[in-house]
């Protein structure tokens, strides 16, 4: 199986349209960046932990820019507060301008964690135990919050790229006895129809040329690096289900185990099976 590169135009372009601070229910906070692009009409996201990772396209001057418009789209340094009138601050404290990350010059333990995460309505919203997508998203957020930096690139590629309606059909085929790969093929879809050119472009926009990638999928490592090695994956960080590590709080069940074993045996995912 190879990465789908059919959606990589010669000049793939992304633009961060808006950035906003989101306080989290665990007491932390993130900055959600919403991106437009020149290959689809979907609103892809970068969920950024920490204030040092900045979007170049967001911060770049735009036609008819004003201090107000820059603050409203999130192109400000430091923090917003009532009565603020300028987007940047010369003061050398917490309200000083942040600069794009230069992670390729940092030691390995300072290279930011990155998760390339494809939208999964059933796993993230509908409490599905057919997959561990929601658990992986939560675990990525936990690890990045601990380090104080990191990025979840959230791509609108529901159902490994086939869309929610076709994914639900695939679930019915699974209930008829087919695994996740065969179900897709019976619907005349690839086992995995996703592409990662947009993720690579978003990482470049965020100034991240070297990353540690949270994934079990070796194809994703090569795909995210890009056709010309625009991004370097310095380390692949495995994402082992909590239940498979003997920990509580994760997704459990026979259907999840079968799904993950299919990914190992038929899709080449690098994930050690549990001993039990």
UniProtKB/TrEMBL annotation:
GO MF terms, alphabetically ordered: GTP binding; GTP cyclohydrolase II activity
Annotated Polar residues bias: 85-106
Family matches, as Pfam families: GTP_cyclohydro2 (PF00925)
Stored InterPro entries: GTP_cyclohydro_II (IPR032677), RibA (IPR000926), RibA-like_sf (IPR036144)
Positions of region (Disordered): 81-106
PANTHER family membership: GTP CYCLOHYDROLASE II-RELATED (PTHR21327), GTP CYCLOHYDROLASE-2 (PTHR21327:SF29)
Family that this chain belongs to: Belongs to the GTP cyclohydrolase II family.
Name used for this protein in its record: GTP cyclohydrolase II
Organism, scientific name: Orbilia ellipsospora
